[in-house]
# Entry
Amino acid sequence: MTPVSEVRVGLATCGIAAGAHRVHSALQAALAEQADHVFLKRVGCIGMCYNEPLVDVVSADGSRTAYRHVQEEDVARIVSEHVLGGEPVEELLLQPDGFFDRQVRIVLENCGLIDPQSLQEYREHAGYEALEEVLTQRVPQDVVDEITAAGLRGRGGGGFPTGMKWSLAAKELASEKYLVCNADEGDPGAFMDRSVLEGDPHRVIEGMMIAAYAIGATHGVVYVRAEYPLAIARLEKAIADATAAGLLREHILGTDFSFEVTIKAGAGAFVCGEETALIASIEGRRGTPRRRPPYPSTSGLWGRPTVINNVETLANVPWIIRHGAPAFAQYGTQRSKGTKVFALAGKIKHSGLIEIPMGMPIRDIVFQIGGGIRDDKAFKAVQLGGPSGGCIPASLADVPVDYESLKETGAIVGSGGMIVLDEGTCMVDVAKYFLDFTQAESCGKCTFCRVGTRRMLEILTRLCDGEGKASDLDRLVALGDKVKTHSLCGLGKTAPNPILTTTQYFHEEYEAHIFDKVCPAGVCKALIAYAIDPERCKDCKLCVKECPVGAIAQGEGKFQVIDRSICIKCGRCRTVCPVGAIDAISERGEE
Amino acid sequence: MITLTINGETVTAHPGETILDVSRRAEIEIPALCAEKRLAPFDSCGVCVVEVEGKGVVKACSTPIEDGMVITTHSPQAEEVRRTALELLLSTHWGDCIGPCQQACPAHTDCQGYVSLTGNGLFRDALEHLYEYLPFPASFGRICPAPCEDACRRQIAEEPVQIRHVKRFLGDQGFDYVPSVAAETGFRVAIVGGGPAGLTCAYFLRRGGHAVIVFDAMPKMGGMLRYGIPDYRLPQAVLDREIEVLQQMGIEFRNGVRIGADLSCEQLEKAHDAVFLGLGAWGSGGLGIPGEDHQGVWQGTDFLCRVNQGERPSLPDAVAVIGGGNTAMDAARTARRLGAGVTVLYRRSREQMPALPREIDETEEEGVTFRFLTQPVRFLTDGGELSGIQCVQMRLGKPDASGRARPEPIEGSEFVVPVQGAILAVGQIADTACLPGTRIEVDHRGRIVVDEATGQTSHPKMFAGGDVVTGPSIAVEAVGAGHRAADAIDRFLRGEEVAPQSRYAHEKLNVTRADIGDVENVPRIATPVRAPEERIADFDEIESDFTPEQAVAEGARCLGCGCAAFNDCALRDYSTASHALQEAYAGELSHSLPDKRHPFIIREVGKCVSCGRCIRICGEVCGIHAIDFVGRGFNQEVQAPFDRPWQESACVSCGACVDICPTGALTDRSTLEKQVPLELTETPSVCTLCGLACEINVLSLNGRYMKTLPRDEDGILCAKGRYGWHTIAETPRLTVPLLRKDSQWVEGTWEDAFEMIAECLPRGEDETLVVGGGRLTNEEGHLLARFAREGLHTSLLAVEAPVPRQSVRLPLSALAPTAAIATADLIVVVGPRSRYERFVLDLQLQAAKKAGATLVSLQGGLPEADVAIENATGVSALAALSEPGGAADSRVSAVQARVASAERPLIVVEERAASVETAQAVARLIEAQPVWKVVCLRATTNANGLSSVEFRSDTQGLEEAAKRARACFVVGCDPAADPSFAERMKRMEFVAAMASKENATTALADVILPAALPIETNGHLIDIDGTSKRLSSVLRSPGGKENWEILVGLAQALSLCWDYADLPAVTTAIDAQRKCNVSPDVYTCRPGDEPRGVLVRIEDALSVLNV
# Structure
């Protein structure tokens, strides 16, 4: 057994939330005496959120042993048995579960492996080599051509070819141009950009610099939401370190290229992810979109040509330069090249951050990477693209994940939110959830978005409350179509997507809500009641203890019964029942 | 050039234009709420959608045109999207286009209008307004069941407004008002039936200029109003008086002519261009029970008709009235007055009675007994005389078709009501027996079938309305039918589409007490009614009028629901055109209360459609940025910072936001205490509150000032021009000549005053000083100068201030018109400025800056300035410009550098604010560099005009002369506001003043002539550019004379031989001798005076108004 040289703790937001700080402190104390030869390292997110806190023990030969769900009290054993004794702690080991098997890590190349706060370590991992190469060996047009050849498309959701965007801005003659990194990641449940910024900030800066060189920009702005304090802190340090190392400001790497980066913390309006609203926000105006043209590549920030690229897009750039366009283009499909990072969440066993080659079927993501549906329930649908996206039913699980194929289904690749839904999910409720988000985030400019989304939400709320009218479904779809077509910006144009896809694929579920006043998934409180199945009930009385209103009492014989006149439908009994004996049944019918 | 097709028309356009730009130029209307031609596209409302071939439905405001585009502005697809956008907006709109009272009135009477006018104490205006809808205010004020009151929102607070009784009060005021009649059209219309439907139809047709003749079978006009309603409710004298008005309008009446008998329908039709049938429902219904045709059983309508014609039939002691409607109540109460004991038999219960609760109560008060659930089954006789009515007891069963519980007989419950007389009031029937052979369709009940909206029958030339169509109904229903038919007949006669355009009317739904705001609960003033025992003794009227105080108090209770923008609302117009429905997307909406914190602008957030026009005109065009959206999404609102009152923001009260608002979210306050949405008269005139002399439209109501708007619909006024006249109009005025006798003021006639002036003003050479206001018109200045010269033999003339200012003369060739601002490339603004004083000019400066000019401000107050040199006088900076080089101040040297390259440099100098030194520095600069031009902003409005008519201060020696003057004649200004001159005036022998209101000068005067305000004056003035502008007297001066008339009167008193027949004669005389329109003098402040100029708040802006 080779001696241990390094111990890594995942300290991105997800790890910290799971208690990684305490584990790190414990390791620090336990390894104090070995500090000279065992290096304790903070790393970013490796993606296995379902296993956090994660600790890697790295041997001198570079081989890695991973521990999962590490708690403070486990630290002593890991240190004594593995670090000192050379014997891995078997029961804490992360068992291979196929999570990484089919992933291809380009953007997440360094995440979870290197210390995001260390410029040196980034450079040891080929950091800033791509920058050096372009500054010293390539003309800007060459860089644009390389990205164009790679077929990289905007990862923020739009999928606009990055090379074309750059070449439009490159052609503009202007005394000043801007390169903006859009880190206003706002989709609920999405954290791709945050993980990259937290886990590998220099990579984003390097990508920005290469882009800036390609288009002729000298100023860069990272527009990042203020809700990402750790990402901001790590970016700030990375900028400071890079500046100190002569990698930013004047005469970078001894060339004539100058570039500086500032951070603009956004106040959290979802619409500010839209590029014209984002520009307005940076300029200190109310963050509302304006019509395009003019496109930002012609007239953007402060009226100057501006390229706005998403974090993930920029994070791809150094890799493409280092490995060449063909290496990137080998992944993916005809029109969707490379990889895409997704935040895999929902009713899935392996929730976390994944990076897959474009074109992988949904089914493979769910069952191979994601390990299948939690509690082995039935797979119902995948919600892609967050509030702007749509729901793809299980029947379309073989659809490959690429821009064109997903668009055909009514959903979108989006920025990378992927929520897996099981049979216990009400699709009307899902549509309502996302619409609730978009209508609250509407900037208020367009009539269709401002009022239309509110009216659609009211209709959905009505359906879930069992007050749906026969005309509601048609009205919902007709209004949704108009909101989609006649809103000014992406927010309004995509806001109806969750409704339009669920009404398309789960029509009967809507009808059940409207005509039968039934929520087939047993979610909508107004339409359900809870009942205890005497066949399955083991009379453990956990539900009786859990019930906050005392609605569960001894029935005839040993079985519990729920008094519906008292029950507030909080669902706690159902959650707590160890044998799944509590069902949500229709309020009216008894199924 | 690009060629495209819009609605089949080929249109050419420039590249880069949007569809909306091109349509506007081609005058093809595309509805748009957020787009406005002065503003950058905003792309938000979704209303301006059009269909483009191959592209589908797009927004016209933001879609650039392309060659060969084929556009349809109102395709079904585009219309559907537009309607949805409008319906979404309507779903968030909280307001009433018109009040619920007017909505509820079958005759669509604008109750809010006349009630609120009454609340303002404007009784005559209220009555005239009422006559726009109803020709019988006094009659209907007595008998109308007032559905308006049922709808009145005031009842949410306590009780509805007494709308009916206010109407009665107005009708009884005794104004001899006869509505005007339009020019004769030559069309002849026959009306059959002189009841409310027929007379109303006749009235409105006659107003439209048609010849109208009314035929009626009865001896007098009025129909059921006269023959069906007893005198104690509606005295016939009241009706006579109102019908007399119709006759005075030229309507011809033919009584005693029965159609079908005396004159056939065919004859009528042939002899007239259209016919209206208002036959009524005079036939009586029966019970169909044995004994019904006994002579002791009267028909209710016959009975009432006979009594109303003066008969006083003797009735037996016990009489039964059968029925539960208003006719039954009238019959019962009439029988009571004839001495009978009366019992009303009604087959349902009290709650189901169709009669008005008030009528039922009054009937009961008068001693009538009621037997409910009582159904007569047989009339009983005893020896040929009626002896009683056999009845059966009823009970209420399930609801019938009318929704009321159906009465069912209780078996074996029969009983006898012993009476000797009975009056049947169980329904009237339309009698259309005269119609056969006329192609007019009649239904199975004998009622004429008509198109509800027009009253047109199956015979296109024949119209009908009232009871003959509806069956017996309330009279106001017949008025509505008559009015609708009159409008339809008018269109029919003119060959237009007969069907009316129905207008969208939004309504506040689910209104709660909180939505009314903090109105105090004020109980409704009870109708004054005589005591029951007193009133059954005669047929005299039982109610009496409100006192004027009560009428005002009741009018003041009106909540004013209807919208001030009822007639000027794009949302309403577009919703009408697109057939949008208020409730299509009903959902949550914000119930806001009007924000009346601004002195002139009323804001109703709930009516806002978030188009952002107000925000954008304030920022983009006015450069003020006083307001913006606050909050996001569905809850966003237009606010000033921190929701402070707008006037406490950067707001300059220009009112541009009000004009550009497409709905009633922003409206102007009028001068009425209680706001009333009315159509106002617009009269063009000129603002005389500064030398820019902006063209305005003054809005008035029957000669009363209401508000001011810019003449040009895209124009913007300053706070003074826009709202200053409010303050002026609201200031108490001098109304009669006042003469000081033994140090007491005595009211006198004009002759008294003229005589006193003729007697007391000294006429020796230069003994009298004449001071004229700078706002006087050319005509007034001319007459005053002539009066001074010829009548008073004085050369001592002064404009505004009798103490001379120093003047600096500029070469006339250097003076430029304000239009030069638009083309200048360097503009130096001299004089401290305020947004309130020269706002209109500032807009031009801002526009010049946008066009590329460099703005330099020498004395501050111009936020847009590229260079601001806040030097108290600006002298050093001006000197540096005239002698380039060597400036220590980098800002000055920057301007020097700019001067070198400027081709059209311009100085804008504020006369009143500039010191002598500053003016001299300007003069030196012009002399040194003739490329400079000057726009001189005169301190007084008509400075140029007055000097052109030789009314100008001869500054040399005036001060000395003024000290020696024995007397003073002051016209249209207040020189005594200056204390030193006031001292001088006190030592004078005689002071005559002509003034519109009391001021420091009038306080010292011996005689005061009430002067007219500029908005009460006809005449001309010359603006600072030398352009002649015409003033119109929008209002009548309370003194009764315009100023020129006063001066002519004075001349007469002095026996001067002037031959001005009228004002145009004066104007002609001036034109003959006018010399120069623009004066080269720049008057400055008096040495030592503080420059007046920098004003910060609207109160200050208004305080400079000194009329």
Summary: DSSP finds 38 helices and 44 strands in chain B. Residues 1085-1107 of chain B have pLDDT under 50 and may be disordered.
